[in-house]
## 1
Amino acid sequence: MRHLEGTPRSQTRLLPPSVEDYVPEDHPIRVIDAFVDSLNLSEMGFRRADTAHTGRRPYHPGDLLKLYIYAYLNQTSSTRRLEKECHRNLEVLWLMKQLAPDFKTIADFRKDNGDAIKKVCRHFVVFCKQAGLVSGQLVAIDGSKFKAAASKDQVITRKQLEKQLGKLDQKIDRYLSQLAASEQEGEADLNRDKVSEALTYLKAHKAELQDELKSLIDEDKTQRCRTEPDAKLMRSGREGMVVGYNAQNAVDEAHQLIVHHELTQAGNDNQQLKSMAQGAHEALEGKIETVVADAGYSNGAQISDLQSTDYDVAVPSNRAINNQGTGEYFQKSDFTYLPEEDAYRCPAGQLLPHKTVSKKNRMHLYARTGCDQCPLQVKCTKADRRWVSRHFDEEALVKANDAATPERMIRRMATVEPTFATLKRLLNKGRFTCWGLSSPSSEYNLGVLSYNLMRAINVIGVKGMLARLA
């Protein structure tokens, strides 16, 4: 029988004689090492970058940062597993110079240096800009829901609490009725001690729920996660409702590099366009031509502010239409706005003057009476009055909608959406392992940094990266 045979364990030189020989010269891990060594970690705010002259010597934050970048590139977020890799993984032995921190030290580094890690992300974007990897010609913005470490079962809402309190009241009334009936009829089978014990428990539980409901009302909140208050119950496409955070990415089209990112508690994207565009603007030092986002970012005030600073904003409109999808009635586009008169002219030639303002919806409303006498009423409305609305930022919304051509929206999808697929693969299948907004933000920062580093290596190669980092 002929099989491949391993090297005898008694051989004296199983590994190369030098640790430097553990990894080849073109291995991506050398880019991680060179990039972190090029950083001024003290200026970026890493804890323990500067040490005191007394006390126990800490691990250098650069070594722990290298370990985490390597970990996320290899889809390893468990700190206990990283502790083991420091003893047995030849690549990690080379990267860490045979240092082996314990899992608590590794976990604390991620928890305590979230802001500093984000500065490293920004520094790498500057490096990519200098290397010609980002252009700023088109920056696509999108968001995706990432699950929190907490379970969805730990979320409470006002409606749930009110429903539970109603059921508790029914149970308490039932037990009280049983006690009252037993006293009148003298029932000996009823165990009054157990009934009293159950009543005590139910009343205590009722008091706890009442306190939680009062707390939600006082804080003007509709929900809360008991074990992770920072996490929110959000709608997430095919997954339905999830407990988590809304991750936002601004991605440059040239090589799909993430130039700005945020982890937010917002349930939707409606308020995120301006902050993300401005963050990308700062990262690229103003070198942005076009900002593209989907209809979820359609916000008149924010679009208007961005257009006033010479951004080319392409965002489809996300507003209801009067036609109701039947094709029988005139749409708003069939009405002509007359700015001099601040009125609309309908297809029949009649004026719809300004009537009122809806500050809540940021709308001007226009209408006229006498539509029941119009020969075109059957194509316009069933009522005697036809209403037409005009947003406070109508011109900005129309301009952004016209700029959102099908070709641009395809480019947006191809630019930003793949980044979330890769990040969810790197980040524990889209579920954070840490609790609270701060620690998951650090996780997301590390994921984005690892993603960008991997993209840059794929574009210009290990040797090209090392040459630019030298």
## 2
Amino acid sequence: MTAIQEKQQPQQQGATAGGRLLTLTLIQAVTLAMREELRRDDRVVIFGEDVGARGGVFLATEGLQDEFGARRVFDTPLSEASIAGAAVGMAVRGMRPIAEIQFADYIFPAFDQIVSQAAKIRYRSGGQFSAPLVIRSPSGGGVRGGHHHSQSPEAYFAHTPGLQVVMPSTPYDAKGLLKAAVRSDDPVLYFEPKRLYRAAKGEVPEGDYTVEIGKAAVRREGSDLSIIGYGGVMPDALKAAEALEKEGVSVEVIDLRSIVPWDKEAVLASVAKTGRALLVSEAPRTANFMGEVAYCIQEELFDSLLAPVGQVAGFDTPYPYAFDKTYLPGAGRMLRAAVKLLGY
């Protein structure tokens, strides 16, 4: 399947691991995480539209039904409300369901089940019940999918107490965060940046490990500017940082990895050091989750800031069919925003 490298495993914050290192794409790491969790815990089941024999529209579940059978990996009708509702019922009864919503854009028919039921069961039952479920969904743009296959809806769910929301940007985190999500006792929205499915490659331990939900990763250390983001924007954030380094600017890059809960301590520590913050994501600008991060920075570090908090995001329009590169906050847009902050 992939090359196996006999190297020492990478040490990353919030993770434990063992075994050989595999070189995987992000989607291969997602598949591996599900395969390992199906083997580890017979309460785990996977279901959604076309996830069985076909292996899903992006082939994330390819081969899993052959290995574990149609009682544990199975197709559903084309009804997102039913998929989410079944996941809630299974979770309350002691199972560990992983439900796939084929595209994040299709999640809205399931909104009531997720927000009104899954998110509130622990609270409304006084802790007697919980909903340990995972809803996986390919998210974001970059594949010329237009406005019904490219949305980034994470802010809707970040606004809902009782839900955890995560989005990995590396294969290592994709596996570790998904395994942590399956083992969580509360519902997790696990959004996968589909433009990184096969573009992001990296070393992933073959052995069991988790990445703690709620812990950011410092992708690059620096002292002049903090670039903070998550998901599909991270490769471009690193490109922007590398370009600025050639001009003598030291940039720290923070990958949130988790949106709810998010790592305030890591963000504040970085911005306290650099004095400048550039927040990046591909969701539309208005009511973007990074606005919450910006508010926290100015509330806690107002007197330490050397420039206003900057933000680069998607535009407040439906996602276009033909202009992915224009809509997405690429390295060029990040560089222009960074120069403005550095010259303030």
## 3
Amino acid sequence: MHQTVAATIDNSRRWRVLAIVVAAQFMFGVDAFIVNVALPTISTELGASSSQLEAVIAIYLIGYATLIVTGGRLGDIFGTKTVFLLGVAGFTLTSLWCGLARSGPELILARLAQGTTAAFMVPQVLATLHVLFPDAARAKAFAIYGTVLGLAGATGFALGGLLVTLDLGGFGWRSIFYVNGPVGLIIIAAAARVMPQTPRRPGTRLDLGGAMILFAGLVCVIGPLLFGRDVGWAGWVWAVMAGGGAMLALFLRYERRVAARGGMPVVDLTLLGDRAFVRGLGAVFCFFFANQSFYLVMTLYMQFELNVPPLQAGLVFLPLALAFVIASRHSGARARRRGTLVLIEGCLLQIAGLGLIAATATVIASPTPFVLALALLVAGYGQGLVMAPLSGVVLSSVQATSAGSGSGLYGTTTQIASAAGVAVLGSVYFTLAQNGSGRVALLGALALLGFAIAGCIGLLRWMRRAVAVAA
């Protein structure tokens, strides 16, 4: 079926389609990071608390995580082009809502809507790549996709700093969301004209009940981590978290019932019987727990402690992005030869990079953006060594018939981990900064990030033993 779709369009057209869908993926990735450098101005203008600032980042990831599998299945039911166009339109409109927000809570709601619409847009990107590139060009197409993923974060920081600094039209921080308006319209117009409609997959069904329970459970677990500090960690905060844990347990039971009735659950529970895969998911959780939160912590330190202007704060991450891309281009071939060893080496480099940043902040009272940019290089190279081949290594034990379910579970885990990391590390940073100093907060957060990466190493080694036993 995929071969048939690829054969219906000429070679040049499919590369134009690649450019369109990757542009949408890029827009999603940029918006995961573009908010960071605008946090101080958002806090000042909206009167948003530190907890609300964390939530602006985390809720975007939670909304996306809980519906990404559902979005993929909607593409199977109605066709990837239809769902992609609706997803881009929704993402564009909710971006405008973010820019129009008049309070911290309204911005959080708008970011939740933005994340959920992204869950309909983004899954169609990989689905389209799989359909249009079944031949030797697949490697090049996915290399382009991977490079765009790596550049999205750094572009988000740099673009956010530039837009806040230029203050175009007097919009200030709001322009970081308004910019999605024209970009989204261009993507919609191009996709409507060039993107082919893929065949629908008969028999595909939705598990909206499971998605809703998962969302409610995650909000109840992660939400108190975001806002507990504002209410002095009152007893009801812990009760809500316990309720969230109970909902997640209920989610697993509900998914088993859906599967028993012959339905298509959000999570393919048979995958949880694969010990290597489960340990790999644990490693994925630890890695992404430390990924997005790392950028948040560095941004908070630069802007709230060192008073680095938004544009300079954004540009600090450009050398890191370059190191990330270089590492990514070399890590794939190395991972095919050496498997998890490459990932472990990357994690060790990340820990070394975190140590270098901590040493820099300890020795230099107020490090300049240039010095910080140099210190970030090692961590960026380590991230690139891990992130590019991580999915392939973790999914290697999954049977081909379960590849789609495994990929969905992998993607959901990355976003949940990122949201949890933002909640926990943000709380740690603000608590230590309030009771000590920004430098103490940075060192404490870096130590926690190091423990998370060390946990990733331990789980990767454990996964390696499980793979060896299975072989």
